[in-house]
Design goal:
The structure is a homodimer. In chain A, about 45% of the residues lie in helices and about 10% in strands. By secondary structure, chain A is an alpha/beta fold. Chain A is globular and about 75 Å long. The first copy, chain A, starts with a helix and ends in a 7-residue tail after the last helix. In chain A, about 30% of the residues are buried. At the A-B interface, helix 1, helix 2, helix 3, strand 2 and helix 5 of A face helix 1, helix 2, helix 3, strand 2 and helix 5 of B. Bound molecules: zinc ion (ZN) (2 copies). The site of one zinc ion has 9 residues of chain A, from helix 4. Chains A, B: This is Recombination protein RecR.
């Protein structure tokens, strides 16, 4: 009796957003209906448009409005290098370094048995097909250095190497500008173990 | 070049939600498009429906799909009592006590000069008209005991009393079940000042 059903439905629907519980869904719904109907209208339209327009690039698997995204179509990228990342955000981070001119494959996730995400859920056969297209010479695995990212890297390494693909992993160690005093022991231990010959 | 425009628009549109910054808007958009397109569809529909169906009750000003909400239309409520609250949530809190059978007026805000919200923005003339309908005998002000809620109560009190309306304020003091040891000094001081004769 107290809350109109369309308001109830809106509060309920807002809970599909990650990190939004019942209290904040209620706060959001009240805010939109009381103070920002224009924003609510824009959001409804943007959701509808994204649902219609967005799909995954057939080559790199990132979000795209075209069948093949503009980066995969670019003639300025080196098609012999394929960098595997977990998410589109990671890809953007790497792009911002301007240190990489190859192509990408976006997993849209990571191997995470606890969450029920295995190789099948990530549809890794698509990555395999992509990596074995005869043009790719090296796959650079740039998953996170978390437990799940490491497990994913390990799995991908096995899978790709068994098909004769050359695989590398981005380096880990002391961050550029990092002082040893402030680097955690695990990172420091890895940096020792993975030391490289000093450039002359 | 990197982010499709429909995805950019969705991320931007999600920022109309209170407490959602650029990072969480991005996370929400990716989550919806990757893992919960059904939820996104439901949210778009719920927003659209709420925008179409929801308005304010002509009598109590709360959200309603009807011109006059069901509570205001109920013959079981005492129309001589009018309780003024800041938000629909506050009204629901009071309803849950089952200690009040009068009617409500929902301000949909509070007097807050710092946020540019004054009596005009709250359209308090509507409350005045409501309180002076000849049936209301007492207005109970149940705004929060915050600075802004107190300022609002003070303003409403002056306004209503000058029209000859009888005005009261919900009590403040030690919470039921509260131990003095854990009650803040301000509340305790008020409880002392507002002491009442002990029931025989
Ligand atoms: Zn692509
Ligand atoms: Zn009403």
């Amino acid at each position: 009796m107290t809350t109109p059903s369309s308001l109830e439905s809106l509060i309920e629907a807002l809970r599909c957003l990650p990190g939004v519980g019942p209290k904040s869904a209620q706060r959001m719904a009240y805010h939109l209906m009381q103070h920002d109907r224009e924003g609510a209208q824009r959001l409804a339209g943007a959701l509808q448009l994204a649902l219609t327009a967005l799909r995954h690039c057939q080559r790199c698997n990132t979000f795209s409005e075209a069948e093949i995204c503009s980066r995969c179509q670019s003639s300025k990228r080196d098609p012999a290098l394929l960098c595997v990342v977990e998410t589109p955000v990671d890809m953007n981070m790497l792009e911002q370094t301007h240190a990489y001119a190859g192509l990408y494959y976006v997993l849209m996730g990571r191997v995470s048995p606890l969450d029920g995400v295995g190789p099948a859920e990530l549809r890794l056969e698509r990555l395999l097909a992509r990596a074995c297209d005869g043009v790719v010479r090296e796959v650079i695995i740039a998953t996170n250095y978390t437990n799940e990212g490491e497990a994913t890297a390990h799995y991908l390494g096995e899978m790709l190497r068994s098909r004769g693909v050359s695989v590398s992993r981005i380096a880990r160690g002391v961050p550029v500008g990092g002082e040893l005093e402030y680097v955690d022991a695990g990172t420091l231990a890895q940096a020792l173990r993975e030391r490289r010959p000093l450039a002359a």
